[in-house]
Amino acid sequence: MEVYRFLETVKKKTEIFLTWRKRRILNKKEKLKKKNVVADWVEAFLSAVVIVFFLNQYLLQAYQIPSQSMVHTLEIGDRIFVDKMTYGPELLPGVIKFPGFRQIRRGDIAIFESPEYQSKGTLIDIVTRMIYMMTFSFVDLDRDETGEPAKHFLIKRVPALGGDRLRMRLGLLQILPEGWNQWVPEEELKLQSKISYNLNKRILEDFKYKGYKNAAIGFAKIEAGLDLSDDQEKGLFSTFFMKPALNQEELQNAKIEIERVSSVFLTIEKNTGYEVWGIKDNFDRLYVDKMRFQALSQIRPYDANIRKEYIKNEIGRFIPEGFIFPMGDNRDNSRDARFFGPVKVKKVLGRSLLRFWPFDRFGGV
Known about the structure:
Layout: H1 2-34, H2 37-59, E1 60-64, E2 79-83, E3 90-92, E4 95-97, E5 109-113, H3 122-134, E6 153-161, E7 165-169, E8 172-176, E9 184-185, H4 186-193, H5 208-224, H6 230-239, E10 240-245, H7 248-261, E11 264-270, E12 273-279, H8 285-299, H9 304-315, E13 317-318, E14 323-327, H10 337-340, E15 343-344, E16 348-357, E17 363-364
Helix pairs in contact: 5-6, 5-8, 8-9
């Protein structure tokens, strides 16, 4: 008798469950029939956006190579995936960086936020970066005042780390690692550290340094209001070009014009206004700066700031802890830390992992 009651109870419970399940399935079908096609597409799109954003923000981000500073390791137009996990991803673009699996190592290729980038606001930055990531770098709405893609992110080699001191000698990098007592050429340090990477073949020949020296002394004389020799003028105009400006408005216009075709090297204030010097040809910036400040220190030996700049270029630059000194593999034509200084580790977004375009050069970087 008890068994019979038990079986009846099971039967009723089963019927109730199956009825509920069937009604639930029918309700779902009815909802699907009533669902707007547009809403369906919007839901699918938003789901895809969330998935792509998650992948790009926390795992892999697509990035397009904008310049020739990493030739021939990376060519202009190459599209790569950047590993976000190794160094630690950000919670949101530009907001809170999580710890990674390891620290940045000497020789890594890192992508980082340019110190020269002028933010248009946190919200705009987040929106433009999300669109850039979701379209795998094919759509970039972040533009500068000339309408060109803003150089928000850069990708460079990391030959020097926090605690190192570095200097350039005739275009070749020398490093004094923390705790070492002698300068080591980059190629020798690579061997000792068991690091392998190839730098682009130099296109600056040694004889050009005579012209760079004349240009540097020429700049110093212009700043001091002195006359230039013929060799100094020749050295200046073989590598640089000048646009005059009478006031602040013309100064800004001159800078914008120069930036459209190259970049501004130096702005000199004079009694009659300004001289804005742009870069006509590749050159060794650190060498020109060093010789310029050396000449200025001889002209104005009483100026402690000028002497400080000369000494900094002579004895090398120190990289503070928590910073890196990224440089392009194409050392003769790379706007890197030699221009904008060391980069904070927390501004590093990830490391180069894989080239996915063009297909004929698909592979790891």
